[in-house]
Design brief:
Layout lengths: L1 H15 L3 H13 L1 H23 L1 H8 L1 H24 L5 E3 L2 E3 L7 H13 L3 H13 L6 H30 L7 H23 L3 H6 L2
Antiparallel strand pairs: 1-2
Keywords: Cell membrane, Membrane, Transmembrane, Transmembrane helix
Pfam families: LysE (PF01810)
Main location: membrane
């Protein structure tokens, strides 16, 4: 029980730390509100579930041990973050006040698009693969069946992802009422776009070019 609580604590600290998934939740919640941010939060959650399965498989071992594979994942992730960043920088929210509720009837992406954004932000981030492969073995007991232990750890992590992102969304949705309409949301989109691009730049800079050249 103590080990499980320790795992929950580490997971909470990791999930709550700033990253592309958290930024996406904050941006969507501030721009569209908590209800409309939920598809993205669900996408991030299921993406993390997919990452945990990959990390537990031989595919995860191949990716984490291969400079080529890890760098390819980083490049794909960087490209997607640049896409999201440019999309935010170009966006011009058209706000309407209807019954004191702020809506984006013309600029709100579809539910599928918001889910897809969250899912790919998680799946194209190589850091969780390494994190899971480093963390899971510390809490897996060799004398016990692997599947039940993995299921508990992975489902716990995914549940925490959803709850923490939901909390972020709730807090930021409450804060959006204090932000002036029009220009305030425009500034949020600009800042969010720049930060996404900074995340992508960090991924690109972390690519080990020498290892890729030597492996050719």
């Amino acid at each position: 029980m103590e080990e499980y609580l320790f795992y929950v604590t580490i997971s909470c600290l990791t999930i709550a730390s700033p990253g592309p998934g958290v930024l996406l939740t904050l941006t969507n919640s501030l721009t569209y509100g908590l209800k409309n941010a939920l598809p993205g939060i669900l996408g991030v959650t299921l993406g993390m579930g997919g990452i945990s399965i990959i990390a537990a498989s031989s595919v995860g071992a191949i990716i984490s041990s291969s400079a080529w594979m890890m760098n390819i994942v980083k490049l794909l992730g960087a490209a997607y973050l640049i896409y999201l960043g440019l999309k935010l920088l170009r966006s011009k929210p058209k706000l309407q006040n209807t019954l004191n509720e702020i809506t984006h009837s013309e600029s709100l992406p579809s539910v599928t698009a918001r889910f897809r954004q969250g899912f790919f932000v998680s799946m194209l981030n190589p850091k969780p693969i390494v994190f899971f492969m480093a963390l899971f073995p510390q809490f897996i007991k060799a004398e016990q069946p692997f599947a039940p232990q993995f299921t508990l750890l992975a489902s716990t992590f995914c549940a925490l992802v959803f709850l923490i992102h939901f909390a972020y969304g709730y807090i930021t949705t409450s804060a959006r009422q204090k932000i002036s309409l029009g220009r305030g949301f425009l500034i949020i989109n600009r800042v969010g776009g720049i930060v996404f691009i900074c995340f992508s730049a960090a991924l690109i800079l972390s690519i080990n070019v020498n290892l890729m050249i030597n492996s050719v």
